[in-house]
Amino acid sequence: MENNTYAKLAATLSESLNLRQPPVAISFTNTVPDGLGRHTGRVSAGCRFWEDAAAASFATSAADHEMCSIGVYTHNLQPSQRQQIDLGDTLKVLGELGYVREEDLASIPVLQSQSKFVVYSPLTETPLPPDVVLLFVDANQSLVLTEATQQVENQTAPAMGRPACAVVPQVMNTGRAALSLGCCGARAYLDVLTNDVALFAIPGAKLAQYTERIEALAKANTVLSKFHQIRRYDIEAGRTPTIKESLIALGA
Q1: Which of 87, 210, 226, 228 is at a distance of 20 to 30 A from 45, taking alpha carbons?
Q2: Dist. CA 252–CA 178, nearest whole Å
Q3: Between the CA of residue 118 and those of 53, 110, 123, 230, what are the distances in Å?
Q4: pTM to 2 decimals?
Q5: How large is the average pLDDT for residues 165-194?
Q6: CA angle, corner 56, sides to 54 and 62, nearest 5?
């Protein structure tokens, strides 16, 4: 797709879902696109790039993920010696807490391929075809996205927990969308990931298909919500409207 196509898809997603945060594109590559800068400044965790990418495009390498050994692990980046030590120490603590037991490790998605760089950007200006498009959503928006997944994938998106960054390899490895409820770490590092917000990740290859379904379903939900509100009002007022009568009232 051309960049203006991604801009149109981003606009449709934002308008249809009434997103508070622009869609974020994530791309894995071995070559940084010409003219694309690197992320500046140190971040506490790789998931912080998701928030920063709502406003700017940039490339990162394993070194930029230095403080996030879990993110390096799930994204299958080449770890430094420090990151390997940090990962071992992290898993030891998580195991002692009963948070991630040894038998749990196999169920945590890890990216099957390995790339040198990860490019983050607003979907509107992505310099590369995105591997994953990430949305910050509330429960009402998740409803529409779940309905879209049922129509596109013929199944419901899995609802994932810790670590939040595992949603990226989950989607890339399977080619299917996934919902992430985040993790306590991501909720500490991201200002946008408040208690009422979750993450929904769409495979880039299916973005146009998802956007078409999301637009249609969002419009349908708006109409149907009004229909149900009319019926509730009438029934609570002591009336017994038929469906046809409620439909007539909907069009009034």
Answers
A1: 210
A2: 39
A3: 12, 15, 14, 49
A4: 0.92
A5: 94
A6: 95
